[in-house]
Amino acid sequence: MEFHIKCDPSDISRYCFTPGDPARAKKIAAYFDDAKFVTDSRGYLVYSGKYRDVFMTVCSTNMGGPTVAIALEELAHMGADTFIRVGSSGAVQPYLGPGDIVISTGAVRLGGTGNAYLPPHYPAVPTFQVVRAMVDAAREMNVPAHLGIGAAGDAFYAPKEGREDMAKAGVMSIEMESDTLYIVGQYRGWRTGALFATDGTPTEVKPAWGEDAFKQGEKNAIEIALNAMHAIALQDEIK
Fold first, then answer.
1. Residue 88 bridge partners (DSSP)
2. Positions of the chain with pLDDT lower than 50, given as ranges
3. pLDDT score at 239
4. How far apart are CA 169 and CA 64, in angstroms?
5. Which of 4, 80, 212, 239 is most buried when burial is the number of CB atoms within 10 A of its CB?
6. Which domains does the chain have, with CATH numbers?
């Protein structure tokens, strides 16, 4: 029995979604056939079920790197090896607005948890196979998606100094988990990827006028992730 995610390993798929928000975990689980509630322990809300005949799991991680690292480690102990974070993010580039989709190709390491695994000069990048599957899924769904690096850190309310430099450097989004997701996955040899629905603009965080657009973007992100994970599972069957 794991310390935090308390369940039987048979209830966990190798294919896992790791959104931060427990409410988003429920939204992902709603797409599963015969979705089964697995556990709700220490904020880790877990459901498993089949999506297009592939057994999948979703586990909320809440906010920040430490909880992500624990989730990945414990899910992997129970057989998981492929993780897609379906998240929300702030927008850094001026052309991004509520509900826009960003498929991450890497993260500026602003958090601390990954440093316990690999030193700061080691790049935080997702698995190419997972990124490719998400790009293909978005294209097949005719959903526009931006591709690029983001930034991920621990302090939501930290001063905003440096944002202009990040924008000049092409950083697209900012959130709190992807750096840890990538570093832990790279260190352990697990496949990882992340995509986000932006929840505002560079100057407005979660504006009321953008709520409907964000909800549609969140739905698009969930469906892209589901279809990408399904494609990865089919590729695994061929190997």
1. 197
2. none
3. 79
4. 24
5. 80
6. 9-238 (3.40.50.1580)
